[in-house]
Predict the structure.
Amino acid sequence: MHEIDVVIIGGGAAGVAAASRLAAAALSVLVLEARDRSGGRAWTKHTGGFPLDLGCGWLHSADENEWSAIAKKLGFEIDPTPPPWARPACQIGFSAEDQEDFGTAWNRFYARLEEAAAQAVDRPAAEFLVPNCRWNGLLNAISSYINGVELDQLSVSDHSLYHDTGVNWRIIRGYGALIEAYFPSGIAVELGSPVTLIDHSGKRLRIVTPLGQVSAKTAIITVPPSILACESLRFHPPLYEKLDAADALPLGLANKVFLRVDDAAELPQGTRLFGAIDRAGPAAIIYDRLEGRLSKDTLAENSRAGWSRRVMDHSRVSQSIRSRRCWDMTCENNYTQSQNLPGEEILLRADRTLCESRSVGCACSTR
Ligand SMILES: Cc1cc2nc3c(=O)[nH]c(=O)nc-3n(C[C@H](O)[C@H](O)[C@H](O)COP(=O)(O)OP(=O)(O)OC[C@H]3O[C@@H](n4cnc5c(N)ncnc54)[C@H](O)[C@@H]3O)c2cc1C
């Protein structure tokens, strides 16, 4: 059995950061990563010569975000252009008047959430929607884009803990590429090694993967809470308090679809398009023209609960935009490399682990 000082379990952003911190220490360090690549939910893939971030793409609170400083140190150029959501959306299907009306509903809804967060009892955000308001569907859809869940699954207290300075930048070569580049060269990593058990009954930890066992003094566990909650990584003896804590931090589901658009030059760079604005499950598209040929579109629409229904909605969005502008859209398969799949199938074939986005807290009364 290998004898190691520190085993880092998971090679996503957190695991890479831990490895980097330990690189200078006089310790033996090993990263065990389940996938065949590091980066986890950060993954930049090159398609048609363009770097596309399949996972995280925005340096949120970029003026305070430590990855901004790391980018500068590693020579990764930052694009400080304010994000498309900081400007009015494209008016196709969403008039300026409707956008203003929606903006007012948005501001009032989030002001109610802020007020509610000060109360002792946590509640699902959906309780603060105005019944029958025409914008509830869109508020829900945009929550699925931001939080990975609709508002009935969003904890008001957890939402209030999210810190946002309002500054959002991007890494031109890709956020995933930056995180990958930060992996320290001197640290050993074993890919394709999902840890299934941590036995902490003895003096040293016994860490088990399908490929063998490692003996470690210490383990740093950076896997998503969902992995602990479903016990695909188990502890012996069981750590019930940690299991409960992981269970109370469910993750939302985020996914992206990239669309290749003919006549891309007809649209302004960095705009948002809304496929539908009047029902639950519509989608907004963030449109970035890359050298006038490939467009990078993010469907603002995800839901753990309504996975297959949502997939239909994605396709309707494409239809609706297509009918307005007669674009010929071909979906780029973002999570699997395989064949050219029709748009509806893409999300079903997506990598479900990668899709987990961020914790949404436990909206207590919904569970
Ligand atoms: C589509 C999408 C868009 C996003 N956009 C943004 C954004 O714009 N800005 C932003 O700040 N955040 C964004 N996020 C969230 C961000 O990507 C994550 O918060 C961040 O990457 C999480 O890093 P992590 O290291 O904590 O977890 P992960 O990246 O999930 O890393 C955990 C690692 O553990 C591995 N693992 C799992 N189980 C085991 C096991 N049993 N044994 C060994 N290894 C295991 C996984 O394979 C993974 O590599 C987005 C997420 C998604 C999915």
